[in-house]
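During the no-cost extension, the postdoctoral fellow (Dr. R.K.) reprocessed legacy sequence entries with the updated structure-token encoder. One reprocessed record is reproduced below for audit purposes.
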Amino acid sequence: MADTAAPAARPAPSGVPAGPAAAPAPRGARLWRRVTPWLFLTVPLALLLTFTYAPLANMAAYSFTDWDGVSPELNWTGTGNYTELFTRPELFEVFLVSGYYLVASVAQIAAALYFATVLSFDVRFRNFFKGVLFFPYLINGVAIGFVFLYFFQDGGTLDSVLALFGADTGHAWLGTPFSANTSLAGVSVWRHLGLNFVLFLGAIQSVPGELYEAAEIDGATRWQQFRHIIAPGIRPVLGLSVILSVSGSLSVFEIPYIMTGGATGTETFVIQTVKLAFQFNKTGLASAAAVVLLLIVLAVTWVQRRIVPDDKVDLV
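Re-encoded structure tokens follow.
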């Protein structure tokens, strides 16, 4: 009797799909898939262009004119504003005031790193101290300026506290350039300490806990843990804090403007720029000053990134 069984199916060659190939997506669907991400970015990009890059372009254009900020007419002056800016020493002497805030920013980073390191370990009332350190950053800068204006004034809070300990209270804290700038820099440290503290604390807590446990088993001290675990692990955040501190020291405005208005040798570059624009009606020169400040901040940031590159840290 003849064998009528159907022959066995031959296996498909290696690398060839057994079933039919999937039909490609329609062209319209593929196009829509590519366009969809850009639709979500439309509104943020429109806001960014409208409120950031368009005003920046206008400011750069105004820096080449003699516009007074009020008149509809403006005349093209070329690089005249930049020439005046670099040939008048008094316009650049205000950068010396930034040195006080630069030194203060170093103390601020050191203090924030110290408190973040201490409070990252098991310490009593550490949540309370976290709130105390971060709270000043939540207060409006104008309010802080007015509070410390009464704090440093003659016969104010500071003099009253010192009088309780029998100290001489005849010193005018905002009366000389050195004491005024030192006091203002101290206020700036107190206000912005919380931001660096939170950044450092988050970076420290992101380090795997197994590393701390292994270090304690090996008998490592707190200093050794900081040197070999914490410091390498927070290097990118530390670099970011340095950039923010340097750029912030160059563009200080609200605290000295509220407390002294730039008097007694406390005028910063930003305060001077605001006065040029709104007090002396030299909007073109003020725009040139703002462009120069922007370029200085970008240059400092670029140099800092070249000196201390943002290397990837792998602790595990």
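Residues 27-62 form the longest helix (36 residues). The mean pLDDT is 83. The remaining legacy entries will be reprocessed before the final report is submitted.
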